[in-house]
Design a protein that fits this description.
single chain, mainly alpha, globular, N-utilizing Substance Protein B Homolog, Chain A
Length: 208
């Protein structure tokens, strides 16, 4: 995997965990970034499993109180199926957490750290400008109401396009790939649509 692709993923997963100060970001070791990313995934796994357990309990309670009514049985079955899907998602996240250190070990670690820090510093320094672009291009959505993972993917992509010299097509494709790994089923389509509008916004702005 390319170092910059790994760096984007590491930045995405560590964004909510690393220190906010620019000086403190400069001193972050690669191991600390990896630890932050693994913690993010671990917290998500815990939340997913808690939701799955709650769905199983709801399904069990519904079965016990249903007196074998068909609609209740079907409803309970749907809850259990949801819990199974959530558990599978948690297992997949666990696989990602285990995979991160190995993938980074096999890559150019200096480049991975350097670009991860560059992304994090750019988002920290330019957050207001990045969010302003997203506020202007989100249709029928508020940035603050988006899932955290979708919001951070968008911020990374806009940071890359606006301040890090990444070609728009590359930034969009990489953001979509991140969304396929970490967002929900519709997340990558949503991310793609928003970033297409971002590029249109940039072109319109450049004309004036």
């Amino acid at each position: 995997m390319q170092p910059r692709r790994i760096a984007r993923e590491l930045a995405l997963l560590s964004l909510s965990q690393v220190p906010k100060g620019l000086d403190r970001l400069d001193t972050q070791e690669l191991n600390n970034l990896i630890l932050s990313a693994v913690r993010t995934l671990t917290e998500e796994i815990q939340e997913i499993l808690e939701t799955a357990a709650a769905e199983v309990k709801r399904g069990s309670d519904r079965l016990l109180s249903s007196e074998t009514r068909t609609t209740e049985v079907f409803s309970a079955k749907a809850m259990v199926n949801d819990a199974i899907e959530l558990t599978q998602k948690a297992i997949n996240r666990l696989g990602m957490a285990v995979e991160i250190p190995e993938v980074i070990q096999l890559s150019n670690q200096v480049e991975v750290r350097s670009y991860t820090i560059e992304i994090l510093k750019t988002i920290s320094r330019r957050r207001l400008e990045i969010d302003e672009v997203l506020h202007k291009t989100l249709q029928d959505w508020q940035l603050e109401r988006l899932a955290r993972i979708d919001r951070d993917i968008l911020r990374i992509a806009v940071a890359e396009m606006s301040f890090l010299g990444t070609p728009e097509r590359v930034a969009i494709n990489e953001a979509v790939e991140l969304a396929k790994r970490y967002s929900d089923d519709e997340g990558h389509r949503f991310i793609n649509g928003v970033l297409r509008r971002v590029t249109d916004y940039f072109r319109t702005k450049a004309q004036f």
